[in-house]
Design brief:
238 residues; mainly alpha; 0% strand
Length: 238
């Protein structure tokens, strides 16, 4: 048999499949798992979209309520008539509680709790103020509000003569937010002042010197310098 005859009887070579045909075969072979996976992805995407829309709606609604609360608190703060002020306070507290319940981690809720703590401070309700300041700091530890709240809690603790709690709050403030300048010099000065009150002069001096070294232009620096001079002149720095 010649070469041409053998060639005619040879099995024809299969054509190489294109990537499209290979993908089509894959889909036919695994269509059920693919459909299940696709359905899961679709449901997940729809859920994310729904959550995003709901969250944005909540943020917008809470922001609108906060704007009203800002105006109400301003009216409360400037009111001189005691009866009217009491009425405004009652209305404010109801609005604050409602706003916090709708989204305790939202900025609007944190701002609302600040107003509540300030109302309590105005009434000398230091226990309530300390509780709310700490709640604010715990709910939003990464926000700029947290160090302000810790200062508020420390001041309230001092008013309650709870020196140990005040010192603990100031130390947490310094340890967690020491890179921020807002409130930190005051925290160091307060630690120095409280150390002086307990005759712990070495630690008081350390706190005051930290202010002078780190914040030479801060308003608390002059006070810290005066305390250092006083302690040294009376031999308390040894």
């Amino acid at each position: 048999m010649d070469i041409s005859a053998r060639a005619s009887k040879a099995k024809p070579e299969e054509k190489k499949k294109t990537p499209y045909l290979e993908f089509a075969d894959f889909l036919r072979k695994y269509r059920l798992p693919v459909l299940i996976c696709f359905g899961f992805i679709l449901i997940s995407v729809l859920a994310i979209v729904a959550i995003t829309i709901s969250t944005n709606s909540s943020v917008m609604a809470s922001t609108a309520r906060l704007e009203t609360l800002d105006a109400d608190f301003a009216a409360y703060s400037s009111e001189q008539d005691s009866a009217k002020k009491a009425g405004l306070e009652k209305s404010l507290l109801v609005s604050i509680d409602s706003l916090v319940k709708k989204g305790p981690r939202l900025y609007a809720a944190q701002k609302a709790l600040i107003y509540k703590a300030k109302i309590e401070e105005n009434k000398k309700d230091w226990a309530g103020a300390e509780k709310d300041w700490l709640a604010i700091a715990a709910a939003a530890p990464e926000s700029y509000i947290a160090p302000v709240a810790l200062q508020g809690a420390a001041v309230a603790a001092e008013e309650l003569d709870a020196t140990d709690r005040a010192i603990a709050d100031y130390k947490v403030l310094i340890e967690k937010y020491g890179n921020a300048s807002i409130g930190i010099p005051h925290a160091y000065f307060s630690l120095g002042r409280l150390a002086e009150q307990s005759t712990d002069y070495p630690n008081a001096l350390v706190a005051y010197q930290k202010i002078v070294a780190s914040w030479p232009d801060d308003d608390w620096t002059k006070l810290a310098t005066d305390r250092i001079i006083f302690m040294k002149s009376h031999g308390f720095s040894k």
